[in-house]
Design a protein that fits this description.
This protein is an all-alpha fold and 201 residues long. The protein is built from seven helices and no strands.
Length: 201
């Protein structure tokens, strides 16, 4: 076995070990679609509120509409991510649900569930202005948490979401702007980056 064959064998072993601990079937296109859904939802909210961005001015009925719209957007994003990821896993000949996928999902869900419960508490207390920064921060934490079991790029996106959430906490009332930037624009940017770096390769 010459040096080139040895190097290829080492690279193959490294890939196998990496796949055993990391979920690498996540599709970059799922991030793009999630961002597009978020931009559409942001446009709907902007139209619904007639351009009034201050959350303090919204009634409970308005917030309820936003929550329903956000839930629908989340379901669409998750469904699209599942379909695209399943297609990628099938194309690569790997299992979609394994130990690495389970670890990634668990670590993703823990901060999301905690953040969701906190948002319900904030909503019940009428602290509507804190909903946007809270969702951004806990979503960012969930990405950072899950990045140990999937692409490291996810960690960078998570840190950006956390920073946006913290900035939003200093500008209460402009949640829609930060939401569109965090969930929309940055999702599309990172989705395109991941697609060209991992999916096409």
């Amino acid at each position: 076995m010459n040096n080139i064959e040895q190097l290829e064998a080492i690279q193959d072993i490294r890939k196998m070990m990496n796949r055993s601990v990391r979920f690498l079937s996540l599709s970059g296109l799922s991030g793009v679609f999630a961002g597009i859904y978020a931009l559409i939802a942001g446009f709907i909210v902007y139209t619904y509120t007639k351009g009034i961005l201050l959350w303090d001015t919204y009634s409970f009925k308005d917030i309820k509409f936003f929550v329903v719209l956000g839930t629908v957007t989340l379901i669409l994003a998750i469904s699209t991510a599942f379909l695209l990821t399943r297609r990628k896993a099938k194309r690569e000949g790997v299992r979609l649900w394994d130990e690495s996928a389970k670890n990634a999902l668990i670590n993703l869900l823990i901060p999301l569930i905690v953040g969701g419960i906190l948002c319900i508490a904030l909503l019940s207390q009428g602290l509507n202005g804190l909903l946007a920064p809270t969702t951004l921060i806990f979503y960012g934490l969930s990405l950072v948490n899950a990045s140990r079991y999937t692409f490291s790029t996810i960690r960078q996106l998570g840190m950006i979401e956390i920073v946006l959430g913290l900035l939003n906490s200093f500008f209460i009332g402009f949640g829609l702007v930060f939401w569109v930037v965090g969930f929309g624009i940055f999702h599309i940017i990172y989705g395109i980056y991941m697609y060209y770096k991992y999916d096409r390769a």
